[in-house]
Structures are given as C-alpha cells and as structure tokens.
Protein: NAD/FAD-binding protein
Amino acid sequence: MVTLTSTAPDAQPAPRTIAPLAPGSRIAVIGGGVAGLSAAWLLSEKFSVTLFEAQERVGGHTNTVNARVGDITHPVDTGFLVHNDLTYPHLIRLFKHLSIPVHASDMTFSVSLSQPDLEWAGTNLNTVFAQRRNLLRPAFLGMLRDILRFNRHAAAYLARSGPHALLGDLLDAEGYGLAMRDWYLLPMAGAIWSTPPSMVLAQPARTFLSFCLNHRLLQVAGRPQWKTVDGGAQRYVQAMLPRIEQVRVASPVHTVKRVGGGVQVRTAGHVDDFDAVVLACHAPTSLAMLDATEAERDVLSRVRYQPNLAVLHTDTALLPRRRAVWSAWNYLAGPSPDAPMSVSYLLNHLQPLPFKQPVIVTLNPQQEPAPDTVLGRYDYEHPILDADAVLAQSRLPDIQGRARVWFCGAWTGYGFHEDGLASAIRVAADFGVTPPWGAAP
Structure:
C-alpha cells in the first residue's frame, strides 16, 4: 500500500545522514501497537531492543478477549478484525511467516436511520429493498442512481482533485443529492474511519477516493476476499514477542531526550540510555514526551485522533430492526452530524465463532446495551485523516532519523493495520533491516 501524501513541501528536506549503528546497539521502541511491535520485532534481528508499552498488554488495537456467552467461552476480537490479500500485502506475508491461521470473513454493510425511518443493506436486492416502500421512494432511488454515478466517475474525480479539495466540496460541485451523501457515503466512510460525518466531509477528496479505489469498494465485481485470524488476532502478537529482548508493559514513558550522541528515555523510577529511539505512539503522545524540534512539532501537532468507545455485548437492540438487514457492519446514525458515529460489528459474521447468540461490538452506542448483556468495554482512538494529517504525512521524511529519533504508526498512512506495519518496515530499512519476505511485497 502506498502511503498517502499531499503536495511536496515548498523546500526540499536536507539530505539525511544516518550514522550506521553497530550490531547489538541499544534501541528503544515506544508504543506496543502494530507499528511498535513490528518495529521491535524487525530490529531485533540486529540490535538489542527494548519495547515500552504504557498499557498492561501489547497489541494496541489488536485486542482479543475471552467472551463467555452461556456455557461457552471463546476468544473474540474487539479492535483489529479483518484484512485482505490485496491491500494488506505485508500483513499477509507476516502472517504466513508466523504460520498464523486465517479464515474467510464476511464484509456486508447496512445502514439504519431513525430520521427518516430507513434501513437497507447492500448484500443483495432483497436487502437493498428490505423496506419495500423504498421501491417507490424517489429519494432512495435517486440515492442508488447517485451511487452508480459516483462509482463510475471516482477515478476521474481522483485524477482532477487538487490537494486542497475536500470531499464535501466535491459532492456539492458534482451535484450529488443529500440522500446519497447521508444514507450511503457518510455511513460507509464513518464506519471505515470511525469518525463523525462532519469529519468525513472535511477529508481531502484524494484521501477518500484513493482509499476506496485501492480497496475496490466502488465496484461490484473483483472485490478482495476479507479474512480474519482464526482464534483471535492476539495470536500474531504472541508469536512476535519472544524475539524481542526486553518488553516492558505498564511502563508509560515520561520523556525522551537527546543526550550527547544518544537518546535518554525516562519512565517512573527509571532512566535508560539508548543509541536510537523509535516513537510508535499516537502523534500527540510522541510530541508530549519528546524534546521536539520545531520541525517535529510542526508535523506531530497536525495529527488529531477521534476517541471511540467499543462495547462488547449481546443486545440485538443495537442491530437493525429488520433481521434481514443484519450485516457484518451495521451503521447506526447519531443524533447530529457532529455526534460520534455508531457501528455495530456482528462478530458471528466476521469470525468463526461457536456462539448461536449474536455477539456484537458496538462503537459509540447511541443507547446503552442492557446491562446483563455487556461483556466488556474498551477505549480506542483513530487518526482523523483531514488536510492537516495528510500534510503531516508528506513532511514526515523531513524529521525521520534526525538526532537518532524515528517515527512510525498507522497515522502515517490510511490509519489501518497495514499502514502501521508498513511504517515499521520503512523505519527498519533505515537501520539496514528488511523483513523476511523482502521490502517490496
């Protein structure tokens, strides 16, 4: 996958001069999500690596928990859920290298609105017209026509979209109706990026269009087969950890400071010296702990995150009212465009689970699940891919490796698992390390 960039900065970055580190040099990797774990795993081939993680577990959005439903207990994923061969090439190769078993997944999608009363899903004609009155509803039929038109012209829109054109501006300029926007495009994008509709409209059009085209979301045929990790994604985390020399969980880093020719990392009660540091945290977290240069501050301060609450439960009241519309991803509209989006992931459709009862992860539930159905609550944050974030991505090379500090994370791309892994591979390349499957998938 190609990392998104905007226009190049006015001034070309100065050439980087990276002093090679001797084998066995000490490297700190801060942040144990997919980017940090992957960076630590890769760099452990040649160096003495210490991985710092603020939480009590490693994995970040890879968060597999044991769900007990009735008399059955089985692992389910509550964060990272699915991947595919087309747009997750490094992740696919990592899983093959680690012998991680995968299973085909279902990626159907539904939309459920209360104002107006509307439910539909894209699985087949029966679910598209699950409400038979929509066969005679002009706005709904107009939405379908607009969807076909948008899909047909998306590549042309991408070719002529300037770096500063926003998705909302594109929709207005091309005359798309509110029904297509509010009943299809914003729910789909909100579900993908876990962001409210207002933030989706503020995305650069290039970002949205290139993602949809790369993932073949705007076509009926030729879509990739989505997959899930059999037994939970935590299996790959556990397979990677033994290679890393030191893993310090529940160890939030307070400061990262350049000292002499190295970098000093301070945690509660400890100060450790390293030859280099890889910051694999969310951008604001990295900025808060680093003695940042002006250029680093300019890049990291541009990236914002959307907090999202994930509730694991079995309350079917948080699924569409019509069972025929139930899909793997179920978008539930919020009370306003600025309200957090809500999506219910029906895990029984996404993962091979032994439960007969529906098991659901709902992001930002608009109504609380019944208390006796709740199995767990988890807080996540997702990067907001607005114009500032895309500009930060384009300027990231300016700050990589300056004074022994590197940066990686899913925020450097589309915000997904593949982007986190790909960013770690690029950082490892600066240290002369390539993954076992090669740098170019």
Q: What stands out?
A: The two ends are 9 Å apart (CA to CA). The CA atoms of residues 98 and 406 lie 26 Å apart. The chain has two domains: 26-61+234-303+388-430, 104-226+305-383.
